[in-house]
Specification:
This protein is an alpha+beta fold. The protein is built from three helices and three strands, in the order αββαβα.
């Protein structure tokens, strides 16, 4: 399975199984070129936010993702790196990131309209 079709297939599968509010899949295969497993499929990074993860442990979330894409893993996907969050966790994480960015901005910097 070529990278664009592998990503598309993963997106379709995860959308159907977990109905995420956010889903991003990146091809990391180039970073793994030359190692033995790379010849058997691509390496992908999955960032997914879903209500289905509410109250679930990290291990349970990863199992849910792997269960959803089990068939895809047999066809051109060698490895997944997964970040799986509930919407509340994602909002909290985004809030922390936003606060850090705001704290690091200097007056008069890019995006500052003050004169």
């Amino acid at each position: 399975m070529s990278p664009p079709s592998a990503i598309h297939r993963l997106q379709q599968t995860l959308q159907a199984a977990l109905q995420p509010t956010q889903l991003r899949i990146e091809d990391d295969s180039a970073q793994h070129a030359g190692h033995a497993g790379a010849a058997h499929g691509g390496h992908y990074r999955v960032f997914i936010v879903s209500e289905a993860f509410n109250g679930r442990s990290l291990i349970a979330r990863h199992r849910m993702v792997y269960e959803a894409v089990r068939e895809d893993l047999k066809h051109g996907i060698h490895a997944l790196s997964i970040v799986a969050r509930s919407p509340a966790e994602d909002a909290a994480q985004s809030g922390r990131s936003g606060r850090r960015a705001a704290e690091n901005e200097e007056p008069g910097g890019e995006g500052d309209d003050s004169e």
